[in-house]
Amino acid sequence: MVLVAVAWLGAKALSCWWWVFRTGEYSDTYYYFLEAREAVATLAASPGSSAVAVLAQAMPEYPTPAAWLLLAPYLLGADDPTSYRNVIIAITIVADAWFAFLLARNGGPAGVLAWVAFTAALGGLPLLRLDMLPAVAAGAAVLLLVRRRGGRAGVAIALGTAWKVWPLILAPLLLAGRSRVRGFLALGVSGMLLALASVAAGGWERLFSPLTYQGERGLQIEAVAALGPMWDWGRGLGTHVYYSSFHAYEVGGPGVHEALDATRVAQVAAALVCVAVVVRWVLKGTPTRPVAWLALSLVGAFVVTSPALSPQYLLWLAPFVAVLLGQAAAGGPQAPPWGLALATAGLLAVLCVLTTIIYPVAYTSLLEQRSTTDAALLVLTARNLGLVVLTLGSLVAAWRFTDGNHRKRRLATEQSRLE
Fold it and tell me: For the whole model, what pTM was predicted?
């Protein structure tokens, strides 16, 4: 495990230097900083207003606890972009280290090394985006569910949802094992406490703002459904790329409305398929073997059918595959097949590399017509098709391995025949 710790430390140090300090990169931390500074300035201009009420309105696209976390470095003295960025990096590295420790403690070195590989392949994103926090909370929840600790998993899902809404997608997996009542109770109580704190800090409208904010977005250039309009843009066929009010680059013009309609149909179809897989899993006794694939299926289906897809979404998937590989390496009657788990990890690693090529390396070629635009579109197409394959493959694996331990069942059948 010493070598694993050295690998983790080396990867973090290299990522910090190569992707952040060498290039002077700020990424989303600069946006966080500007929002925090504006919130504090608004408070200073309204001396009679409640500080809590004013500050709680900052960054409405994030749940209230996440917004407060992003305000905290500025309020505590990190009032310039560089010091603010460095505090965010420290927060994400601590979260990263905590999850790596959980993987090492519960699954051995394979899961940790997979986690190191995924986060390193994603470049500076894991360091500079708040998404590290909900990702590790969701990963911890899946790890706990594999170990049949539903109560703790429920708390982890609630905490992840407090940072970003998407970890709530994992709630059906709390049906695992005999602790399902405890799991849903823990999720409900933890979620209610967090919701009440959020309402007290920002009101009911602020509580639901992350959902209403996302619902109004257009078609982001990296979305799977945007591939057709983006290729039309690359050929100069009438579509255009623009920076929207949602702080994202979106594509507009002919075919976009139809693409958005297609995402809605795909979302319904994906939801029905996911429900069928989860129901089969429950009817088969909720074996732990496919839990990580189930998590990957649920979140992957959301990602590939969403009209919004950003580079950090790959970080959402990485913890589940790290858990999967650690589970397979640990062995036991409920362990997933090692070869299939390794293939899943290999595919995700390739997709992480392609994502880094898209952003930040070739991103400008997706915003402006350049000689490298076609190459960038090819990389984007390969990454998105790979995401679809990863999701479909995870669904198939989850369906296949909901029957529990095939080897154990075969031995039982042979023994019954002998009797």
Answer: 0.94
